[in-house]
Amino acid sequence: MTGQIPDSVIYRDQSYALTGRDGDGLFDPSALGLRPLAMSTACWRGYVCQYTVVDGGLVLTELEMLVEGEPPPLFGVTPLKEGLRGPRYEGLREPVRFTGRLLLGRGFLSELYVHMGFQSSWKYEDVQELLFENGHLTEAHDRSEDAARRRAEPSPDDVPPSPADRTSTRTWIQRTFSRDADL
User: Fold this and answer.
1) Neighbours of 180 (CB within 10 A)
2) Do 60 and 49 form a contact (C-beta atoms < 8 A)?
3) Torsion-angle region of residue 27: left (phi > 0), alpha (psi -120 to 50) or beta?
4) How far is Cα of residue 154 from the mean position of the Cα atoms in its chain?
5) What whole-number distance in Å separates Cα of residue 144 and Cα of residue 147?
6) How do the domains of the chain map onto residue ranges?
7) How many C-alpha atoms does 139 have within 13 Å on its Cβ side?
8) Environment class of residue 111 by beta-carbon count within 10 Å: exposed (0-12), middle (13-18) or buried (19+)?
9) pTM reported for the whole predicted model
10) Which pLDDT tens digits describe the chain residue by residue (183 residues)?
């Protein structure tokens, strides 16, 4: 398996990996009747989003997505054919009505990389928690110290199990591919 490409969030002029979420309302191609195709082993879900926090609101600003056939215009934007992994939609300004919390990570600690799924929030030096209500930022908290504590005292669930333990391995794999908040 391969580590998966995370979505990104531009927050306070810094680019963060979207490392976890609890809530509903992020971009979902199926809501538009689209079924993305895997772009590579690093992107089984077939799309990668860039969100930006603009004037206290969450906005979808870029999207790479591979679909069968000719990619359709989305939100009034025709995709460029020259994305790294698939057609790229640039210059989007689509409000995202997300309600819940997002965990953002910056400064990934490469020695903690696991060649599987999405990387956990606690593997980043700078971790921010953003809370949204219907797409509007309501609270922001620095969770970097929480991440540092988790690194200092890892849970047994943070370590890949022995391949001989098939049940634990299956559960661990499912958890790594989940984008649920882990702090």
Assistant:
1) 10
2) yes
3) beta
4) 22
5) 5
6) 8-95, 99-177
7) 9
8) exposed
9) 0.88
10) 578 999 999 999 999 999 999 999 999 999 999 999 999 888 989 999 999 999 999 999 999 999 988 899 999 999 997 666 789 999 999 999 999 999 999 999 999 888 777 889 999 999 999 999 999 999 999 999 999 999 998 777 766 666 676 676 666 555 655 566 676
